[in-house]
Design a protein that fits this description.
The protein is 35% helix and 23% strand. With 231 residues, the chain is of the alpha/beta class. Bound molecules: adenosine-5'-triphosphate. Belongs to the ABC transporter superfamily.
């Protein structure tokens, strides 16, 4: 999947100026960048929710019906129970789908005990966990997860990452997610897309990013690359 010549502004605020980048089909794609860099906007454009200028060329992306998107703040009817929401998501598949071991584990360890809880009574982290799980049980070609780890504790973070990676590795799905928890990149088989200064300022894997920044700490690498573009 490739994006060429992405230019985009919200009224007078320019977000992207000729951004070019690629996403891989067989690895988890992780978009990183500072707050306000445009990560959510990029997902919105990929989904087709936000329209960019006519110079944009997007190659090999599935069309909207073949994409499922977990928005950053996904809201649902608060009076529904977790079980009702899961059934709603399941009903949007027109056939039975296979569930990965990681999805089953996530269901047994996290979701099961929440089944009869109404959404309005879930904590922020529990709500996030339910929404990511529900998104993952949809059968689509491309999965977009905007900040799937926000508000969850480190135990759930790891379970969620396993679940998301299993979509790519076991189900051969395409996945693009945004992430602020850079320490997680170390253990992830991921293609990183670093958005900053209205462009893609780096793309590659974890070790290539450290190499590009000439440092062995990902947080410092991020800071260095971020500072370099704001000079
Ligand atoms: N609908 C909108 N109208 C005007 N400005 C917007 C709109 N949506 C986002 N923005 C602005 O565009 C910029 C990019 O926003 P975006 O949400 O894409 O960033 P982000 O990288 O996802 O940030 P974060 O990491 O904080 O979630 C921000 O400065 C934001 O205030």
């Amino acid at each position: 999947m490739e994006i060429k010549h992405l230019n985009f502004s919200y009224k007078n605020k320019e977000i992207f100026a000729d951004l070019n980048t690629k996403f891989t089909d067989d690895q988890l794609n992780v978009i990183i960048g500072s707050n306000g860099a445009g990560k959510t906007t990029l997902l919105n454009i990929i989904y087709g929710f936000t329209k960019a200028s006519s110079d944009l060329a997007m190659t090999n992306f599935p069309s909207m019906p073949n994409i499922i998107y977990k928005f950053q703040n996904m809201t649902f009817f608060a009076e529904l129970t977790v079980k009702q929401v899961i059934n709603f998501f399941k009903s949007m598949n027109d056939h039975a789908i296979t569930i990965t071991d990681s999805q089953t584990r996530f269901y047994n360890e996290i979701i099961k005990e929440l089944l009869n809880t109404k959404l309005r009574l879930l904590s922020g982290g529990e709500y996030q966990a339910v929404m990511v799980y529900c998104t993952s049980i949809m059968d689509r070609e491309l999965y977009l997860f905007d900040e799937p780890l926000s508000e969850v504790d480190s135990y759930i973070e790891n379970l969620l990452l396993e679940l998301i990676v299993s979509l790519v590795v076991e189900k051969k799905k395409k996945v693009i997610m945004t992430l602020h928890q850079l320490n997680k990149l170390n253990s992830l088989p991921a293609h990183i897309v670093f958005v900053g200064n209205k462009k893609c300022i780096f793309q590659g894997d974890f070790s290539q990013m450290l190499h590009a920044a000439d440092i062995d700490d990902i947080e410092i690498a991020f800071k260095k690359m971020r500072q370099a573009i704001s000079c």
